[in-house]
Amino acid sequence: MIEGIGDFFFALAKGTSEKLKTKKEFQVGARVVVPPFPYYDAKKTFESFSKDAVIAFNKQMLEGIHIEDVKIENNEWLITGNSGAALIVTGCGMTMKEAQKQMYSRISNVLIPNMYYRTDIGNRWFEDSDKLYTWGYLRGI
Q: What is residue 72's DSSP assignment?
């Protein structure tokens, strides 16, 4: 999104929002998770493996990093909650490959004990985009 989410929701509530303003590039995101994800009812697993785990970064670059169940204590990002949902990491680019490359590069900068994420996000685009164009859901980008 180009505009802030608060501004968008305010305009939506007032009935003055015309269209969601987004970048023209491809955008992709992956969840970075820790145990017990996706088993939300496994509180003991969360407490054993993930509770208060520190989120660190190789380089202090936070662009494209969006927190989920995270708290900040003593200037450190810590996993909280009990779902195991830590971050959403995004990337964008003029092609899906560029967006994927940026997203996975940003993920490689993240250090969390026991973290994992999907490595196939966006792969279906290369086949599905042809279908979406043919069916009329997409116009030229």
A: E
pLDDT at 140: 61
Q: What is the pLDDT of residue 128?
A: 87
Residue 107 corresponds to which tokens in the numbers above?
């993920």
Can you tell me the distance from the alpha carbon of 32 to that of 46, in angstroms, rounded to the nearest whole number? 15
- Amino acid letter, 99: A
Instruction: Quote the CA–CA distance of 90 and 117 in Å, as a whole number.
Output: 12
Mean pLDDT confidence for 11-23:
81
CA proximity to 79, closest of 29, 34, 31, 30: 34
pTM, to two decimals: 0.81
| CB distance 63 to 74 below 8 Å | no
- The CA distance from 95 to 10, in Å, is 32
* Beta strands at 26-33 and 110-111: parallel, antiparallel or unpaired: unpaired
Q: Residue 74 carries which DSSP code?
A: T
Quote the DSSP letter at residue 63: T
Of 105, 80, 93, 95, nearest to 30 by C-alpha is 105
Burial of 83 (0-12, 13-18, 19+ CB in 10 A): buried
Second-level CATH architecture of 25-122: Alpha-Beta Complex (3.90)
